[in-house]
């Protein structure tokens, strides 16, 4: 019987091949060769890591509104290419992001739709989860499953990206089962969202896109920040972030220490949202051309085993919480350690390697209500213990050459990802719940025996090449990648082993994109990209499922208003994905991979920094996501064709807006920041049969902050901030695939902050 491998057998070969690749490309891109400049070029943007001009990244203000910044926030990428994060940041705006190309390409030159949530926006909104970070981003749906602090469940353009579309520092963050690594947003410098297929650079993934979280990294300027936060539901939290150069290192070493300690209840009875997170980082820069940064993290959480409420027939969500405090503590521990290395042989030849190893261990107990009879609810239990170990490495070589008037940016790379996942689980019963007293936590609930198990191991190797050719007003982007994916799965129940399964997939994916500078700062573009995603399991005949494949046509316009920090974009897209897993119409207990879906629509976004501390972000999305060839089960379990139906739980139209305004130094209200946001989502279908609609929802958020340096310069760095979410306490639900979830009620968090 195949077993899950505990060591990545190809890792040494990958590292060696990366070195060979670097040597071979150096022959193509001579380090001494100058790059010819075209007669007319798109706007040049400085992207030097850690030294770019930045806006009000640190919000604390001194006399006359002078900023107290935290160096590196939004601009402190220790490396300049893939995984290094956005740069050219001012307020809520960013001009450069490597996510779309793994090179420092300005956003207006990338042939796909890209959004960046900067550190200043994360600070202003006091973001507490990755879901919240994307709340004002076009194309993203984050409230599909209501309030659920256990996981970051995110859809982009209608496609789920939770398991294969979340990246950290340019490397895929593998997730399987219940072992979904959680990202602490306080430890992030920025979050970048690339919409549309990204397989041409990143391999297997969602057609909707990816999101890449950039970790805070050391900088060579001494700084510090401490925060104390308190909110409703007995929320208490402390944050700290400090670092700078290492004494005695002669400016060659720097460190950073970031952490969060939180103890909090939630509006779910007997459910907590506790967290301890600490993330040390260290950078060694022996010379101006070499950077080596070590990134580490340890995190421990205690969360509810379930966030669900009992559903009555007819898509009615009750007030009866499914969980029980006596058996409801989802405990998880995760860690990561990795590095980002970059060496510039010359301005025309750069080698990078990003590496990360991480692990997640979880103990997942839960109680669920199976039925309600009279004034009591009948319940059952489940217990899952899971572990995940993963390693990822990406080796890149970037070269710059010129052929006559055409300037080329060439990228070659090889990456490798491996994970091992193990699960043990069992099920049991719980005493009935008295609905007259709702006696949560007052009855003993036995832990089920772990009688079943499952294991899975996956290896993925990818080779990719990219050409970015700039001539006159044109930028042509060509990307191609070959992937090989192998997967082994085994299981056992009651001591009896199931049939092990092995699966091998290979695919070539690519992207073609063209940008044209129509006027200064105005760049129309068009692109075509393909995607693939292996699918676990077998059909009724024991054959492995064919990998899901898809493609996208996208066109749009990006506009950087000359002389300002105002960036706007419009994008239209049409995505098709085939070989979707669906219920076998001839045997409803099995699945087949023959269905298809289509996602089409358009997005509009504008971000602006109008003055220090004054920012605006607007986003609108229209999405039409339909099943092309698909079946689902009706209430009786019979297969029903749903061709042409809309995907449930995903709104067709959304509009969001968030603004912050800092009163100028001349104002009597100097030091005061006011802000607020609106999140509108129109109705969506509650089930894939499209029989019932979810209601339209509009939520409001608020920000009030004050920098005490406006009273006296001796208080420089002190700031008080209050954030309100869903401030009018809108009671709302969302149903997806026939099951309904409750949204978060009004939440208020106050913060006392000191920066130096």
UniProtKB/TrEMBL annotation:
NCBIfam families membership: TonB-siderophor
Keywords, ordered alphabetically: Cell outer membrane, Endonuclease, Hydrolase, Ion transport, Iron, Iron transport, Membrane, Nuclease, Receptor, Signal, TonB box, Transmembrane, Transmembrane beta strand, Transport
TonB-dependent receptor-like beta-barrel domain boundaries: 285-727
Natural source organism: Methylobacterium thuringiense
Transmembrane segments: none
Gene field: fhuA_3
Cell location: Cell outer membrane
Family: Belongs to the TonB-dependent receptor family.
Annotated spans, Disordered: 45-94
Residues of the signal peptide: 1-29
Composition bias, Gly residues: 73-88
Gene Ontology molecular function, alphabetical: endonuclease activity
Residues of the TonB-dependent receptor plug domain: 107-210
A Pfam family that the UniProt record links to this protein: TonB_dep_Rec_b-barrel
InterPro entries reported for this sequence: Beta-barrel_TonB, Beta-barrel_TonB_sf, Plug_dom, Plug_dom_sf, TonB-dep_rcpt-like, TonB_sidphr_rcpt
Membrane topology category: Multi-pass membrane protein
Identification of the protein by name: Ferrichrome outer membrane transporter/phage receptor
CDD domains: ligand_gated_channel
